[in-house]
């Protein structure tokens, strides 16, 4: 059989040794998609439906939420899953549609680097968030920060 022809549908396949990364990527997309639906709708419900609803969304609401370790980890899990899910989807699109090997490698590398950078920065924002950083005596948040 030449390189231009396809094997018969039921012929035995020669499989490379090692982990099947495409299979695990496929499984990750399905599992993370289900978890993301729960995380995102939980996030939207708490932020928009409970309490005063959308009218309660302000700096104090966000500061209070990010002061709670439960919500920090909820947001981190949502951030990590969404960015890795999106990056894996973009990698799949690049692998499917970009024909040049060198261009494909550069694009996949750029997706990896940008996703890693966003994950690092997002994680730092969530865990290093200080609502009183830079608040001065003439700020509207001065009294609230003094109470902390």
Automatic annotation (TrEMBL):
Alphabetized UniProt keyword annotations:
Heme, Iron, Membrane, Metal-binding, Transmembrane, Transmembrane helix
Say where the protein is mainly found. Answer: membrane
A Pfam short name: Sdh_cyt
Annotated GO MF terms: metal ion binding
Gene Ontology CC annotations of this record: membrane
Where, by residue number, does the polypeptide cross the bilayer? 27-50, 70-94, 106-129
Subcellular compartments: Membrane
Q: Per its record, how is this protein called by name?
A: Succinate dehydrogenase / fumarate reductase membrane anchor subunit
Q: Which species is this record about?
A: Microbacterium invictum
């Amino acid at each position: 059989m030449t390189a231009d022809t396809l094997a018969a549908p039921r012929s035995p396949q020669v499989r490379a040794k090692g982990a099947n990364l495409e299979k695990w990527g496929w499984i990750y997309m399905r599992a993370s998609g289900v978890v993301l639906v729960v995380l995102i709708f939980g996030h939207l419900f708490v932020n928009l439906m409970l309490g005063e609803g959308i009218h309660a969304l302000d700096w104090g609401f966000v500061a209070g939420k990010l002061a709670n370790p439960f919500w920090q980890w909820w947001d981190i899990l949502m951030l990590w899953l969404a960015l890795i899910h999106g990056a894996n989807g973009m990698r799949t699109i690049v692998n499917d549609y970009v024909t040049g090997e060198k261009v494909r490698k550069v694009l996949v590398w750029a997706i990896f680097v940008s996703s890693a950078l966003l994950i690092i920065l997002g994680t730092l924002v969530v865990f290093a968030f200080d609502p009183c950083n830079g608040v001065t005596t003439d700020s509207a948040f001065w009294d609230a920060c003094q109470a902390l």
